[in-house]
Amino acid sequence: MVMNKTLLFSICLVGTVHISLSQGTPEKIDLKDPNIQFVDGSVIPIPLEIFTSLDKLGSQDWAKQVASYEITLDTNRSRTAMLFGLTISEGFIAVQAEDKEAVRRIGREVLRLSTSLGVAGSVESHANSIVHAAGKSQWSVVRTELDKTRQTVLNKMAELRDDELVDLVSLGGWLGGTRALASVLKENYSVEGSDLLNQPDLVKQLKDDFNAISERARRGEVFARISKTLEHLESLMRTDANGAISEGKVIEIALSTKQLVEAIYES
Questions:
Q1: Kindly report the CA angle at 205 between 16 and 164, in degrees rounded to 5?
Q2: What is the pLDDT of residues 88-101, one digit of tens each?
Q3: Are 260 and 236 in contact (CB under 8 A)?
């Protein structure tokens, strides 16, 4: 069963996940749960549940997680697809931080990236709505428009039979969300919170799906690094004998994902 075609934020926080650090151990996604929604065999994330989960992490310094990378585009559409997924995830992080300027910037970047991917016509109205709603602090609207943007691009690329780019957008979104989550947990570690990163089977599926993409779509040094990092993360995202992911592993996950994100932006 293919699981990871339309991931949005961190796969740790999708599907039927409901967590509260003040109410015991958070649940991680159960791929056998009959309530999980699948479309064409893929896990469909539910934004409301994603942000309910993030909100229940309690008061966190989300502003510290808002990245401001300069995006330099090239002719490598695979890298552009990864950047699009990363940028969407950064948009959701900026919403958590209620950072108007960051969301506005991300709205503009979303349009520029979608133009490079050849789907700007389908995205322009969403990008404008993101910028407009951010100016009015209408965060629920921004969240909705970010998700619509992501889904519109995935649908359009699927229509164009760019299935490999769909996978890379999804991987970028997962990576960006996991980077932020691990960074937050690194700053405020708890055994309960670390269980959100207990996703070795999901990372294995991401890795297998990525390695199945054609070599043509994975050209460039950064893509070899992606494969190695996913392999490393799979081993890190396993609980120890005490049923926890140690603080040391959380720190390593945060570092590995941060370095990979930076490599994608800088390549």
A1: 105
A2: 989 988 998 999 99
A3: no
